[in-house]
Write a structure and sequence with these properties.
351 residues, alpha/beta, D-Maltodextrin-Binding Protein, domain 2, binds ligand 6CS
Length: 351
């Protein structure tokens, strides 16, 4: 059961049908009055009003418009089809066609994808990071192939913003992480990244996190600001540290076999929509992360001490995070080192 700002959302299906009027009517009929030729599911890991859901709803609307009502997508909020790991599995099996997936939930399936768990890898400049995510061959060719071995095709990697820490105690130095129980997504390399600081990582789905923080099952967590506020984590945490220690990357994913079996013109419509959505996704996270920082800072009912790490303080964490790259090279699949080196070169070139 997920508690979110006093709202109880059960694990039962919570969905919103996205039926654009353009090209068809509200009964889902296509422009020629018939039933849509294609009816697909698009699952997200977030709730209505949050970045992933709004991205998916807009994606569905554009695709329906382009296809003149021949494509209808049902967009699901988090929980509609299970938890984050369940959703990734359904995409792999093809029972769901489209999804937004956080690599953290595929960490036990696609070893090289744990690259996103490395702290201080991408530039602090989020716009530049998005440019790298758009253009990187390491990610869009090499890592895509790794995902395709599991029947998932990442069509785009996009940022949901820099991640920050919240805690029931101050988090300013690595010493503050000593024995600190931090909730993480289910990815072994995320664990290693936190063990490097002396913390005790605890994998947990986010639907259980509000209660977990409230009851002291875990001491803190990491997420972009918009999500911390929307999920109400700041209500049950006293401190938030602007650490920018990592970038939250999401992927727009399609089941590989399903996608490869589509007619070329339909694939083109999908690809075109993916391209258009890059800017939309970026803007959604940028606006929400800015807005919700102010909301947290001004929330008198749930006061949260917000502290921004200095560059010297960040350097202490960076020094401990860098050796985790070697761990990744040695433990995350035969191509981990090659993909990491390619990405590091691309990041260097972009900077
Ligand atoms: O922390 C999580 O698990 C969740 N965080 C975000 C930003 N989106 C969905 C994800 O499941």
């Amino acid at each position: 059961m997920l508690k979110k700002k006093g709202l109880l959302v059960s694990g039962a299906v919570s969905l919103s049908l996205v039926l654009a009027a353009c090209g068809g009517d509200n009964n889902g009929n296509s422009a020629d009055g018939g039933d849509p030729e294609y009816q697909w599911d698009f699952v997200t890991e977030e709730m209505q009003g949050e970045v992933q859901y709004e991205y998916a709803a807009e994606f569905a609307e554009r695709l329906e418009e382009k296809s003149e009502g021949n494509i209808e997508m049902t967009v699901y909020e988090y929980g509609g089809l299970g938890d984050g790991v369940d959703q990734a599995e359904q995409l792999m099996m093809g029972s769901t066609e489209f999804g937004i997936v956080s690599p953290g939930f595929t960490g036990t399936m696609v070893e090289e994808a744990q690259i996103f768990a490395l702290h201080f890898l991408f530039p602090d400049d989020i716009e530049l990071t998005q440019q790298i995510l758009n253009e990187s061959e390491a990610l869009n060719v090499e890592l895509r192939e790794k995902y395709e071995e599991h029947d998932m095709t990442p069509l785009a990697y996009w940022t949901e913003g820099a991640m920050q820490w919240t805690g029931n105690s101050e988090l300013r130095t690595p010493a503050d992480f000593e024995n600190f129980q931090i909730r993480v997504q289910n990815s072994p390399l995320i664990n290693t990244s936190y063990e490097a600081y002396g913390a005790e990582p605890t994998p947990m789905d986010w639907g259980e996190l509000y209660t977990g923080l409230d009851q002291g099952v875990v001491d803190g967590q990491e997420n972009p600001i918009f999500f911390i506020e929307n999920a109400g984590f700041h209500e049950v945490q006293d401190h938030m540290t602007i650490s920018n220690h990592n970038n939250y990357v999401a992927m727009t994913v399609v089941n590989t076999e399903f996608y490869n079996g589509l007619p070329e013109d339909v694939q083109e419509m999908i690809d075109e929509t993916v391209e258009e959505m890059r800017e939309v996704g970026y803007q959604l996270q940028d606006d929400m992360n800015e807005e919700f920082l102010t909301v947290i800072e001004e929330d008198e009912e749930n006061p949260t001490e917000v502290y921004e790490l200095s560059e010297d303080e960040r350097q202490e964490f960076r020094d401990l995070a860098l050796p985790v790259r070697d761990f990744f090279r040695e433990n995350n699949g035969e191509d981990a080192g090659r993909i990491l080196d390619m990405l590091l070169d691309e990041i260097d070139a972009a900077q």
